[in-house]
Amino acid sequence: MWSPLIRSVKIAARQSRNNCSSVWNRRWYSSRYGMKKTTGRYGTDDYSRSSSYTSFMHTSNPGGTISHSDPLAAILSQPTLVIQRQIEYMNLFLGFEQANRYVLMDSMGNQLGWLLERDFGFTKAIMRQIYRLHRPFTVDVLDNYGNVLMTIKRPFSFINSHIKAFLPNVIDPRYPDGALIGESVQSWHLWRRRYNLFKASGEDTFDQFGAIDSGFLSWEFPVRAENGTILGAVSRNFVGFARELFTDTGIYVIRMDPLSFQGLEDLYYPVSEKGMTLDQKAVLLANAVSIDFDYFSRHSSGPGAGLMFWESE
User: Fold this and answer.
1) Which family does this protein fall into (predicted)?
2) How many CA atoms lie within 13 Å of 91's alpha carbon, on the beta-carbon side?
């Protein structure tokens, strides 16, 4: 099932190139770069490399799963990532739940890769119609050449979503999908939107590095450390209100560095001066997919399915 899909990704890449509160981790790591600030395509602050910017290898990740030689590290070195869900026409017109597809970009709109939900054929397609938002899924993060950089996996979830992020092509007898990076666990609340984010720290042990506790119908999902400072954030950035009413597409801005919060102090405060590690960034990227499934799918049945109301906090 995968080979035609990856071929299509490679063709698209060629065309694109041709056209141009449990256990807390008490260790905090700094990641500071010298950057030039420009205006991003999605209303974000983009920071291009300057002479004082060395490389993402200065992003601290002690004891982490992702090494700086992994291709995934190059993508996670971006201060800001943007993912956009592609329009699902059968879902739009017929209500037929299709496998999700996302474009992965930097803040200037340059394509970095894809996030593709695996489509295992007719049987799985039928199961998607039955389980809807509760369905198990596997999403692969691909670069522009179709290489799998990370795998996001969720089992069937009746209430709380629980996803894991894996680094593929790493032999681990416990997990067939590769080495476990970390996980995001939804915490049920009647109206608030809550997640706990964990980094794998050993065999079957995790360190919590952040928590999300957003208000009713909120579009902003800041990740707060134990001391209350903001480490990162996922923001639902609507393309256009009229378009959102009739399509199943959406844009999510993922902020993973203190630099990406500059100019947004009125919305995000206080921001931690310490950057996220590579493993933490990978978990936050996986969490953005979970947020899309849990609250912004056209078939969301819980708080957040509506598009006409929101809460200002």
Assistant:
1) Belongs to the phospholipid scramblase family.
2) 21
**Whether the model pTM is above 0.90:** no
Using alpha carbons, select from 281, 226, 260 the residue that is nearest to residue 40.
260
- The tokens describing 276, both together, are 């996220």
**What is the residue whose two structure tokens read 């800001």?**
80
Burial letters 89-106, b for 16+ CB under 10 A, else e: eebeeeeebbbbbbbbbb
State the CATH class of domain 2-295.
mainly beta
Give the pLDDT confidence of 184-232 residue by residue, as tens digits.
999 988 999 999 999 998 778 899 999 999 998 899 999 999 999 999 9
Q: What is the pLDDT of residues 11-60, one digit of tens each?
A: 444 444 444 333 343 233 223 223 334 455 555 554 433 322 333 444 67
Contacts of 134 (CB under 8 A, 6+ apart): 156, 157, 158
What are the domain boundaries of the chain?
A: 2-295
Instruction: Name every residue whose Cβ is closer than 8 Å to that of residue 22 and which is 6 or more positions away in sequence.
Output: 196, 208
- In the DSSP assignment, the letter for residue 259 is G
Backbone angles phi, psi at 157, to 5 degrees: -130, 120
- pLDDT at position 227, please? 94
CB atoms < 10 A from the CB of 277, how many? Answer: 27
For residue 16, what is the enclosing H or E element? helix 2-18
Q: How far apart are CA 184 and CA 253, in angstroms?
A: 18
Give the single-character DSSP code of 261. Answer: G
